Amino acid sequence: MKFMISGATGFVGKALCAELRRRGQSVSAAVRSETSWIENAKLIVVGAIDSETNWVDALQDADVVIHLAARVHVMRERAADPLAEFLKVNLHGTLNLARQAACSGVRRFVYVSTIKVNGEQTSATQSFTELDEPSPQDFYSISKWQAEQALWRIGQETGMEIVVVRTPLVYGPGVKGNFAQMLAVATKHIPLPFASVHNRRSLIYLGNLVDALIACSTHPVAAGHTYLVCDGEEISTPDLLRQLGNAMGCPAHLLPFPPSWLRTLGKLSGKSDQVERLLSSLQVDSGKIRHDLNWVPPYTLQQGLQATAESHRRLGKKS
User: Fold this and answer.
1) Best label site of 7, 40, 228, 293, fewest CB within 10 Å?
2) pTM for this prediction
3) Selection from 104, 211, 216, 121 nearest residue 169 by Cα
C-alpha cells in the first residue's frame, strides 16, 4: 500500500512517516520546500497549500492520503482577515487536494481535524463524542469544521472513502507550543498556583495518534466515519505538572490559589485563553474507534509523558 502524507515534516508527520516505513509501507511525503528532509521517504515539493496547489506528482500511485498540513493557531496574528487565511489553507487547500486525490484514484482520504470542532471545553461530568452538535468557536476550528463537511460531499460525489479524525492536544518528544512551555516551566523549580485546580483533560500521545491514523487508513470499517481519539486517561493540570516534573527530576511545587483569581489575572494580563486551558476540562470519549476498529492505544498516558519529559531533558542538556 502506498501512502501520501501532507505536512510530512511537521511534529506528527515525521513520526507518521517513520512508523509507516518501519511497517514496510511505501511513503510519499509532500513538503513545501526543497530544504525539507525525511528519512526513507520520497519527497515531493508542492509549495504553499491553497486552491491552486498541484498535487499530481505527490499523488502518483497513492492508495491512501493522510492530510496533516494545516494553518494552525497563530500566536501573533497579523492577517487583516484571519478567517480568510485559515479558509485558504484549511478549507480550499484541503478540497483542492481531495478533488485531485479522487481523480488520481486514491481509495481513502484520512483528514486530521481537531476536537475544537466539538467545542472548547466540557463540564466535569461530560465527554465529547462523535454525536455532539459541532460548536467551533475560533477561526481555526471553524475552518476545520467547514473542511470536514465539504469532504463528506466530495466523498459522496466521487466514491473516495473519507475518514475524519479529531484530536485533542498532541504531545510527545519534540512537542512545541503550549506543552513545550509547560515543560520549560516545570524545570525551573518555580512555585506554581495550580494546587486547587480540579479539571480533567484528555490528551493524545504522538505514538498513539500515529497508530490510530494508520488504523483509520487501513481498517475496512473506518470508511465514512468520524473518530475522536485520545489516550483514554484524563489528567488534571496539577497532576500533569507533577508527572512531568518527576520525570525530569524537578518535582513540582504547587500552591493553592482560587481558580477565580487565576482567571482574573488572565484577563488582566491578556492571557485568558492560555489560563482557561489550564483551568477548564476537556474530556474525550474514544469509545467509537475502540469499538469499530478494535483500537487500543499502544502507550499509556504515563509512558507518553515519561518519554516526552525525558526527551525534553536530553535536549536541554545538549543546548
Assistant:
1) 40
2) 0.94
3) 121
The predicted-structure confidence for 249-260, as pLDDT tens digits, reads as follows 889 899 999 999
* Residue from 66, 2, 314 nearest 214 by CA: 66
Q: How far is CA 23 from CA 2, 26, 56, 70, 241, in A?
A: 12, 9, 25, 26, 34
Note the pLDDT tens digit of each residue in 218-237.
999 999 999 999 999 999 99
How far apart CA 128 and CA 6 sit, in angstroms, is 27
* Residue from 111, 140, 171, 299 carrying the catalytic annotation: 140
| Domain extent listing, the chain | 2-172+202-234+283-299
31: Cβ contacts below 8 Å, ≥ 6 apart: 8, 9, 38, 43, 44, 45, 46
Please tell me the distance from the alpha carbon of residue 244 to that of residue 264, in angstroms, as a whole number. 26
Task: Specify the CATH superfamily of domain 2-172+202-234+283-299.
Answer: NAD(P)-binding Rossmann-like Domain (3.40.50.720)
205 flagged as catalytic: no
CA gap 92, 8 in Å, rounded: 19
Q: What is the C-alpha to C-alpha distance for residues 144 and 70, in angstroms, rounded to an integer?
A: 9
Residue 55's identity, in one-letter code, is W
